[in-house]
Amino acid sequence: MPNETYDLMLIVSAEAEDSRKAEIASEAEALITKGGGTISDRTAWGDRTLAFEIEHESLGVYSLIRFEAPGEVIKPMSRQLNITEGLLRHRVMKAVPGAPVSVAASPAALAPPKESPGQSAPTPPAPSPAPAAEDAAPAEAEAAAAPAAAEPVAVEVPVTAEPVVEEAPAVEEAPVAEAPDAPAEDA
Q1: Higher pLDDT, 123 or 181
Q2: Is residue 60 part of a domain?
Q3: Which of 74, 117, 125, 154 has its CA 20 to 30 A from that of 133?
Q4: 62 near 10, Cβ under 8 Å?
Q5: How far apart are CA 176 and CA 155, in angstroms?
Q6: Which residues pair with 44 in a beta bridge?
Q7: Read out DSSP for 112-136?
Q8: Looking at the record, which segments are called Disordered (predicted)?
Q9: Is 34 helix (H, G, I), strand (E, B) or coil?
C-alpha cells in the first residue's frame, strides 16, 4: 500500500518537565518510524491556551509532526499515544497537499473571518483569461523562476442562506361532539 502524508498534532501538558515534553515527541516519532514511516517536518507551536480544560489543565504545549506512512500505522500508533502519560490529546489527520506545516500566527488567524448576519460572503475573483500562444512561453519561464507559493490551508466556502419555508397557518377544527349515552342493558 502506498504511503500517505499525515499530520500528527500533539498537545502535551504544560506542567510536564521539558525533558518529558521532548520524550513524548520522540516516542511519537519512534512509533512512526517503527511502522515504516518517515518524518518530513516537525514544528513546535509552543504554549497555547486550551479551548476547554483537559484533565484540569487550561494550558498545553502544541507540536505538529508531518510524516509519510502506510495507513496501517495509524491505529496502533494512536492506541499507544492514548496511554502515553503527559500527553493530553493527539490527532492524526491526512495532510492537505501543499499546506505549510509551520504557522507564523495562531491557528485562529488562519480561519476565515466571521461574518455578521447582515453581510454576504465575498465573491471569489474571476479567473483571468488564458494567455495567447505567443505569451505562454514567457509566462511559463516566469512561473518556473518564481518560488512556489504556498497553497491556502483552508478554502473559503461562500455562505448560502437557507431557503425560507413558509408554513400554512393551522386550520382550526370544530370540536368533536360526544356520542350520546348508550342505554344501559338490563341483565
Answers
A1: 181
A2: yes
A3: 125
A4: yes
A5: 59
A6: 63
A7: PPPPPTTPPPPPPPPPPPPPPHHHH
A8: 107-187
A9: helix
